[in-house]
Amino acid sequence: MTTLIRKMMTADSDSTLLVKSLQFLSQRAKAVVLPMVGIAVFLVIWSFAANSIDTSLGKFPGPKAVATQIGNLYHEHQSEREKEAAFYQRQEERNAKRIAKDPGYQPKIRAYTGKETFLDQIGTSLVTVMSGFILAAVIAIPLGIAVGLSKTLNTAINPIIQVFKPVSPLAWLPLVTMVVSAVYVSPEPMFAKSFINSMITVTLCCLWPMVINTSVGVAAINQDWVNVSRVLRLPSLVHVQKIVLPASIPAIFTGMRLSLGIAWMVLIAAEMLAQNPGLGKFVWDEFQNGSSQSLSRIMTAVIVIGFIGFLLDRAMLQLQRLVSWDKESANR
Amino acid sequence: MSILLDISKIDMVFPTPKGDFTALKEVDLKIKKGEFISLIGHSGCGKSTVLNVVAGLLQATKGGVLLNNKEVTEPGPERAVVFQNHSLLPWLTAYQNVELAVKQVFNRKMSKAEMQDWIEHNLRLVHMDHAMHKRPDEISGGMKQRVGIARALAMQPEVLLMDEPFGALDALTRAHMQDSLMEIQDELNNTVIMITHDVDEAVLLSDRIVMMTNGPAATVGEILDVKLERPRDRLSLAQDAEYNRLRSAVLTFLYEKQRKVENIPAQSSSKKTGETGDLQKVDNTNDVDVA
Amino acid sequence: MFKTIFKQPKHLYRKIMGQALVASLCLSSAMLANHSVAEELGYPEKEELKFGFIKLTDMAPIAIAYEKGYFEDEGLYVTIEAQANWKVLLDGVIDGRLDGAHMLAGQPIAATIGYGTKAEIITPFSMDLNGNGITVSNEIWKQMKGNIPKRPDGKPVHPIKADALKPVVEKYAEEGKPFNMGMVFPVSTHNYELRYWLAAGGIHPGFYAPHKGDTSGKIDAEALLSVTPPPQMPATLEAGTIYGYCVGEPWNQQAVFKGIGVPVVTDYEIWKDNPEKVFGITKSFAEKYPNTTIRLTRALIRAAKWLDENDNANRPEAVKILSQSNYVGADYDVIANSMTGTFEYEKGDKRAVPDFNVFFRYNATYPYYSDAIWYLTQMRRWGQISEDKPDSWYFDVAKKVYRPDIYMKAAKSLVDEKLMAATDFSDLTGEDGFRNPQTHFIDNIVYDGSKPNEYINKFSIGLKSGDKI
User: Per the structure, how many domains does chain A have?
Assistant: First the structure.
């Protein structure tokens, strides 16, 4: 009898387990299947639409054309890497020959002069956006904290921020370019001017949302926390470090996510406009080429740009979850 | 016993767009070492303002506060505050919240190990040693308030200032907290000023109950000496004649002598802006709990 | 990727490996070293160079010099970068972002005389002859076609003159519609060629008056010319912003392929074997880095020779290189149309034009003074040079900008080092820099570079001696 009951109980718990795991699976399945369906429907609509749009450069690229281009671009990248290896090989031999003839010669290895592949351009854009973003954060977060803490400073700086905030960083681009070429002169520059230009443009567009969000976050700190700090007589620096900074982390991250999103969009446009290396230049060059493959390459770039933008945002979100005490704000 | 804290004829005037608003007028109170004082009065009468002036968070317009004959000009850990809504830093664990205070107050006076012992001791005192590595959002409201008290106690203050410390808690938790507080008080015999709305709480905990008149220009109305034997037990006190006399004395003060007349449409005031809330003369008659 | 960010290579390990290799080779070759070569061309002073270009097939010598390793043979490590438009390219060379560039012949000349940005730019190397065409939109072509005489097979007789366009322009004028056309730059070959062709057909392309601040070139104009970057020409034509344009390849053939326009005339027909692009560097670059200058000229000469070798035998390979996305990037077929000796006019009307792109034949690479002077005469003709200048001024400017001395040093050392044969340059011994009077213009006016003022006075449309706007 008892064994029977026990059996029934185990059967029962087994079945609840089963039900539970089924529920879990169906939830999982929903999370996986629904986006899949969405993507599939999108792909079908895309390929139909693509088929019915004729441009002077041929049909609008569909999913298949893009897939082919991804393959092509990867192969191009690989063959370029082979060429690069050969380039260095030749250079070493040439240096060796010259040393033989001219023993005083200090051999030098010059960087590869070949073209940037699609993957190189992705890397360049990513490095540029991250450098500009980090530079902006280094400037904007302390500035935002200062502005948030001091009403005087806030009143003094606010009009400037409000005027510059709505300016498209692209409008700055010509000025940035001219100033960089006037100011950034060194015989052996560490960074390429084009990189500096793009980076500063990114910095300019990241700056305002970060300053504003940080200062708002700092100004809106719970007064009780400030009082705690006052009662403890925390020195200003400790106050900023232990109270202000952690308290405004959610607001700072909101600003950072906002500006990284804008920065990525602006960078692509800036690269197109200024012909600075990166994905934007890739798109523009392909547009200028006007070959039968151009549109599908541009479409590939568009998708890759979107995908990277999405990943950047996700990465920021993960970082926020990791750093911020306010788990709620990371889900917004 | 000598006077530890001398609140000497303080006036508090707030400038407003409609002209000056006198919140406090000649509030005068002398407190001895080891005394437990409750401040009771209707909402908006300026209890929090008094507490904030003592804490040094606000500066009195006239008069001043002397602690050990030294004038109070700024906040400091010798006047630790337990805020109404615990005000723990949410990014720190219970332990770290207390640690922040201990590190600041006992910097170079204690070794690392001593500090750790001291922090743990204070958390044990409020029965929070089991959850000291939890963050505020992982513990209940009562527990948060316990940590808040532990933090204040850990500063070894000369005066402990408590602004409606149990106001946001449910009745059961509140009773529990009051018992804990009495236990601690038995052991440490701190000088305490506590603001409360709760008549029973005031009678149960205090040595003296300071009843404040309604604002504007609120001041000390009456002072009631509570000469009940310690340790006090809430159950036996319920039958106690003296207890009930004191209780009704407070109620009489509040509901007969200082009955509030509603003439300004009620506005909601947030607890956060406690001191400015006093400006708005907000009142609701249910404000004082008669539990 | 990293070279776009870091200027200095970071391959330390390569350096170490390289030095090891060097050391081992040093030993073996020290014994073999031959120190007999006297007056050898020195090593380049500057080895890492960046050259700019516009996406046009006539940039080929730069691409070929890179791809065939001619630059590296000279110890030059060259990065080649497409530029957005001619202005950006010129500014790049002037401000040092670029070491040198594929330029419109008019650019170094205009920069030197201060029309536009003033800067001393020189050219030791002329990049090609011919290579441009004039394309009109399908709509205009329909209206023009009736005015063109037909061959027995029904196809239009070439060259098509602007006379056929004149009634169309007049019709638009009557309707009050401005007749807009595109060219690539105010001092571009294309501007002068388009103007030459229009004026030869009696259509006034308008004067410039820079002394009055008017640099739009539309004074008295019947056809209004404006600037559009070459790669955008087809798109602008398709959008209807312009009715026709003059541009280099592949942008005329692109219009045929896309079916949006019809090339009507090539510059070969307007002026047979006209000089076109040059390779421009700043004067200070040439003075600071004389060996680099000679060496890059050598590489370009070899590339040009390769392009024309064995009767254009290498052209298909060249087309393949140019169709790479980092060079011209257009489809192979589009580029091949003009580069391999044919030119497609109206769809299906493909004609042989073996000399459409000339890179080396007919001394195409030699920087003739007379070529510079022709551009100066056209600048004067259309008012970009607002005042009369004596003949001697024309010669002086030409000698400042065009540098056959550098070219000859490069050529001589190539022959000395047996990289090229003396016969490759046989015509140039004793060259004075002036071509013989040239007769093959569409309006049959003869050009003699030694008499610029006399030449200017021959045109019916255009400023003459003493004219001022």
Answer: 2
Question: Which residues of chain C does A290 touch, with a Cβ-Cβ cutoff of 8 Å?
Answer: 231, 234-235, 254, 329-330
- Categorize the per-residue pLDDT at C376 as very low, low, confident or very high, splitting at 50, 70 and 90: very high
pLDDT at B266: 44
Residue A129, SS3? helix
Model confidence pLDDT, tens digit, residues A198-232: 899 999 889 988 999 999 999 989 888 999 999 99
Q: What is the CATH class of B3-80+157-287? A: alpha beta
Quick: pLDDT tens for B117-157: 999 998 988 888 888 899 998 898 888 988 998 899 899 88
Q: What are the tens digits of pLDDT across the range C264-310?
A: 999 999 999 899 999 999 999 999 999 999 999 999 999 999 999 98
Q: Which of A223, A238, A325 sits opposite B272 (nearest CB)?
A: A223
Q: Is residue A104 part of a domain?
A: no
CB atoms within 10 A of CB C146: 9
Nearest CA to C188 among C153, C152, C217, C163? C217
Q: Is A195 on the interface with C (CB under 8 A)?
A: yes
Q: Which residues of chain B have pLDDT under 70?
A: 1, 260-291
Annotated domain spans of chain B? 3-80+157-287
Indicate if the alpha-carbon torsion angle A161, A164, A168, A171 is positive or negative: negative
Predicted local confidence at residue C391, as pLDDT: 93
Nearest neighbour of A193 by CB, restricted to C6, C79, C97: C97
What ipTM score was computed for the predicted complex, to two decimals?
Answer: 0.79
On whether both A177 and A254 belong to a single domain, the answer is yes
Tell me the pLDDT tens digit for each residue of B83-124: 888 789 999 999 999 999 999 988 888 899 999 999 999 898
Where is the domain boundary, A37, A52, A67?
A52
* Mean pLDDT, residues C361-367 taken together: 91
| A140 lies in the same domain as A27 | no
Cβ pair C129, C272 in contact under 8 A: no
> Residue C107: how many CA atoms within 13 Å on its side-chain side?
29
What is d(CA C446, CA C439) in angstroms, rounded to the nearest whole number?
5
Q: Which of C227, C216, C266, C223 is nearest to C90 (CA)?
A: C227
Q: How far apart are CA C428 and CA C458, in angstroms?
A: 30
pLDDT tens for residues C396-412?
999 999 999 999 999 99
pTM of the model: 0.77
Handedness of CA C107, C109, C112, C114 (dihedral sign): negative
- 8 Å CB contact of C329 and A289: yes
d(CA B249, CA B239): 16
Residues of B with CB under 8 A from a CB of A: 55-57, 74-77, 79-81, 83, 85, 87, 89-91, 100-101, 104-105, 135, 155, 272-273
Does residue A128 share a domain with residue A8?
Answer: no
Residue A238, domain CATH = 1.10.3720.10
Domain extent for A42: 2-52
Q: What share of chain C is helix, strand, coil (3-state, %, to 5)?
A: 45, 15, 40
Q: Tokens representing C21? A: 């290799």
Kind of pairing between the strands at C244-248 and C179-183: parallel
A46 and A135 housed in the same domain: no
Distances (CA, A) of B222 to B206, B212, B284: 14, 7, 22
Specify the residue for token string 């608003």.
B21
Measure the CA–CA gap between C252 and C245, rounded to whole angstroms: 9
Hey, is B168 helix, strand or coil? Answer: coil
- Residue A7: the pLDDT is 53
- Judge: C231–A101 Cβ closer than 8 Å, yes or no: no
- The C-alpha atoms of residue C164 and residue C147 are separated, in whole angstroms, by 5
Both A209 and A309 in a single domain? yes
Write the pLDDT tens digit of every residue in A87-128: 998 888 888 888 888 888 888 888 888 888 899 999 999 999
